[in-house]
């Protein structure tokens, strides 16, 4: 027996909605700080005022229209980013020449701030939806590429040797060895990309847009409507939390064969 004694690990049943504990505590702190006067309402309105403003925006149909436009942009860009990220990760992960060609430019793009690219993107693509969706796509494909290609490179050597032993074809090797081994990394990248999609959306919707959550928040900033800005921030937070929760559930179902510590 070691000096640390015997460590016993037992499986615990998951607690439903446990991940909501942090956001609920944050909401409670916000409400208490507002009620006690510790938080200036001019800096951040109290939760009840934000809820009241949100209901008003819903009744007017403003929030629904903004939300629909933003979700369409975000999901379209994310979908394209996933496709390009998977494609580049396969090119880079399965071939050294592919890695030499693909990895460098993508790492350069990874280090380039989106804000710095927006003027050039507007010059090339104009101010329409194409520019916004393109920037979301280019940003969201990076986490997919990095995590998936790293997972491909980390496939255990014994599985590769087994594939050679049983004479799998190239495509059978990709299907039965590479893809299952890369799925955990892919889902990690997908969760990061989903969050990135909402972050980039905030930026691109500030550029000559006439709808969307970013436009709504930008107009509220110009007019000094702090409560509407708070509504937009809460909606973005809920979108991020919901998206991550859905992807966690999907990951759990798809990777149910993995036996992890958790």
Description:
The protein has 262 residues and is mostly helical. The chain has a single domain, classed as MetI-like fold (Orthogonal Bundle), CATH 1.10.3720. Helices cover 76% and strands 0% of the residues. It has ten helices and no strands. The model has no long low-confidence stretch (mean pLDDT 83). It is a multi-pass membrane protein. Keywords: Cell membrane, Membrane, Transmembrane, Transmembrane helix, Transport. It is found in: Cell membrane.
Major sheet summary line:
none
Whole-number average pLDDT?
83
Class in CATH?
Answer: Mainly Alpha
General form: globular
CATH homology-level superfamily: MetI-like
Order of helices and strands: HHHHHHHHHH
Strand fraction band? under 5%
The CATH architecture designation is Orthogonal Bundle
**How many separate domains?**
1
- Taking pLDDT < 50 over at least 5 consecutive residues as the criterion, the unreliable ranges are none
Please provide the count of β strands: 0
Oligomeric description of these chains: single chain
**Percentage of residues in helical conformation:** over 70%
Provide a brief overview of the structure.
Helices cover 76% and strands 0% of the residues. It is an all-alpha fold and 262 residues long. Keywords: Cell membrane, Membrane, Transmembrane, Transmembrane helix, Transport.
